[in-house]
Amino acid sequence: MTTTTETPVPVFAEPELTPAGHSLLDAASELFYARGIRAVGVDLVALEAGTTKKTLYDRFGSKDRLVAQYLTRRGARWQHHVLEHLAAQPDPRRRVLTVFDALEEWHAGQDRGCAFVNAYAEVGAGDQATRDVVRQEKDWMRRLFVALAAGAGLPSPETSGASVHLLYEGALVLSTAGGHPSALTEARATAEALLAPSAPTAE
């Protein structure tokens, strides 16, 4: 079976909200990422948004649904960001590395790492909606790397792409939770080595 070289379409979209809903989601997004989901209550979100807890529940129904919307919007913006970078890179092999470059730019000034990993660590095991969003994002990244590996002409692109995805996800965790800030740079260098054309075998 031939592996597709087409980049996967985004699985997330910006939510359609009222102005008050946008204010609440903006406040929640900043607070959840900076302080953690469990540490932030709906009262604080409503206060920071300049609205009321009743409005929050009217717009989102529950804190769990607000968390899912926070991750969904972040996922939509991340996917748009990485696809923009890929569209500007015509070289098939460099496109694999472009994802790492897009991530470095995305995380500039953000010291808490991957919002999806953080959310799963906090609430994912106990909340179906959060778990589903996190797994959709991780599956999209895996499919993206497989498609890029196929486009780069790597042998066994399913395996090659999955290997680069493991590098990427592992580096995301190590760069923050593991206290290894150069992990993404090292993962990119390892991916670049995997992409290097094999030297011809001497006869």
TrEMBL record:
Gene3D superfamilies the record matches: Tetracycline Repressor, domain 2 (1.10.357.10)
DNA-binding region: 41-60
Keywords: DNA-binding, Transcription, Transcription regulation
Entry keyword annotation includes Transferase: no
Family matches, as InterPro entries: Homeodomain-like_sf, HTH_TetR, Tet_transcr_reg_TetR-rel_C_sf
Organism superkingdom: Bacteria
Keyword presence, Chaperone: no
Record domain HTH tetR-type: where: 18-78
A Pfam family that the UniProt record links to this protein: TetR_N
Official protein name in the record: TetR family transcriptional regulator
Organism ancestry: Bacteria, Bacillati, Actinomycetota, Actinomycetes, Micrococcales
